[in-house]
Write a structure and sequence with these properties.
Blueprint (H helix, E strand, L loop, with lengths): L10 E2 L3 H5 L9 H4 L1 E2 L14 E7 L13 H9 L11 E8 L4 H17 L3 E5 L6 H6 L8 E6 L17 H7 L5 E9 L6 H9 L3 E4 H6 L4 H6 L3 E5 L21 H13 L5 E5 L10 H17 L14 E7 L6 E7 L5 E4 L7 H4 L4 E4 L1 H8 L5 H10 L1
Parallel strand pairs: 2-4, 3-4, 3-5, 5-10, 6-7, 6-9, 7-8, 9-10
Antiparallel strand pairs: 1-4, 11-12, 12-13, 13-14
Helix pairs in contact: 3-11, 10-11
Length: 395
């Protein structure tokens, strides 16, 4: 490799002629504005890039949905046709990571590439492939030496059974058991109770993980925003979208998020100052009527980019001059919760104490994204669940 950022050996160039259908893109379409890895242009420079598209053609660990390995280029067919909003498109397309000799080889390539992008403050957008690639997405953070929060938008938890090999149905247990462990929190949005054993729901509670049923999120989608804002990496299983709106998945089911709800969640991810990688998994072109699922994934990427270019840079690490501070005392004044409201975005955070000897390890988690509803709960002299779950992890 010629430079520290040239990973061309890991990638197959994009077949631009096939994806474009031989028709030129308009000057203001993604296909013209992005720096794309093709045979003619070569591997794109990372300079000035804010986001990097990575296709991963790996489907060997996705039981019954192996055809998802063909998804990246089908999404590109729709993505390249889109027009950006009122923002500069600083996105590069690195091409496709082909399936390695073993799935572990594919994991290594994705982890390595992502690790470098993260250190360069470039957000990887992964087009899978199966959701088992979330494991490699997570491992990319190991070199950064910080604890991270993982969010899955998924109708199931994908814990699997004890002793299961790594797959799209068991990747979470592999992440939880990985050593050294740098997972601070796992959250799920959109799980469907009839697909999940009650023992798994109880386990999530014992681990102080943050899980939300589909009905809860759909009835109040704005409550998903603080959950997404608290995540470092997002894994989106397209099986979380209902069959009628995303048929391109062998495991698609009648219920789930709508297409516009999926785009809203993707925009929440983009606008989060903390979130630094976004994976879209489990799209199978063999089941995708008229490319509907690939088209939706392309629009989700657009919404993520739109959110990114509207980031408020108000994740409060230190300077709190741009925040209004609220102190709430609970019953008998035994507990105090401090809330902060951003004047830039009207978003809320709450302060959670941590042991002094753990300051460096947990400093990123001491201010927890929350909602106005959490503030209202505290004002009624009740402890918000979000505060308690975080306190348990920090103690």
């Amino acid at each position: 490799m010629s430079t520290a950022t040239d990973f061309s050996d890991f990638f197959t160039p994009v077949d631009f002629e096939r994806i474009s259908g031989g028709r030129p893109y308009q000057a203001a379409q993604f296909g013209s504005l992005m720096r794309i890895h093709t045979r003619e242009s070569g591997y794109p420079a990372h300079e000035d890039a804010k986001m990097a598209l990575i296709g991963v053609c790996e489907g060997r660990r996705t039981p019954g949905n192996e055809g998802c390995s063909l998804a990246p280029d089908t999404v590109r067919e729709y993505l390249y046709r889109l027009h950006p909003g009122h923002w500069p498109l600083q996105m590069i397309d690195l091409g496709n990571i082909s399936a390695g000799h073993t799935p572990s080889d594919t994991d290594y390539a994705l982890k390595t590439v992502m690790g470098t992008l993260l250190r360069q403050n470039i957000i990887p957008i992964i087009l899978g492939g199966g959701q088992d690639l979330t494991y490699a997405q997570y491992l990319a953070y190991e070199a950064i030496e910080q604890t991270v929060n993982l969010l899955a938008i998924d109708p199931m938890f994908d814990i699997g059974d004890s002793g299961d090999d790594l797959s799209s149905q068991s990747y979470l247990s592999r992440i939880i058991l990985h050593q050294p462990n740098f997972l601070f929190n796992f959250s799920n949005l959109g799980y469907q109770t009839y697909f999940v054993e009650q023992s798994s729901v109880e386990l999530m509670g014992k681990l102080n993980f943050d899980v939300h049923r589909l009905g809860q999120v759909r009835s109040a989608p704005e409550l998903a925003e603080p959950v997404i804002r608290n995540a470092d990496l997002l894994s989106f299983d397209m099986g979380a979208v209902r069959l009628g709106e995303a048929p391109g998945n062998a495991n698609a089911t009648p219920n789930g998020f709508t297409g516009d709800e999926a785009c809203r969640l993707a925009r929440y991810a983009g606008i989060s100052d903390k979130l630094s990688s976004f994976g879209i998994y489990e799209i199978n072109p063999a089941f995708d009527f008229r490319g509907q699922t690939a088209h939706l994934a392309a629009q989700m990427i657009w919404c993520f980019a739109d959110g990114y270019y509207n980031r408020k840079q108000d994740f409060p690490f230190a300077d709190k001059s741009d925040y209004t501070r609220f102190r709430v005392f609970l019953k008998d004044h035994k507990h105090e919760i401090v809330f902060y409201k951003s004047s830039r975005s009207d978003r809320w955070w709450m302060e959670v104490p941590y042991p002094p000897n753990q300051k460096l390890r947990f400093e990123r988690h001491a201010l927890v994204p929350c909602s106005y509803n959490d503030y209202e709960v505290a004002c009624s002299e009740e402890m918000p669940d979000r505060w308690w779950q975080t306190f348990q992890k920090l103690s």
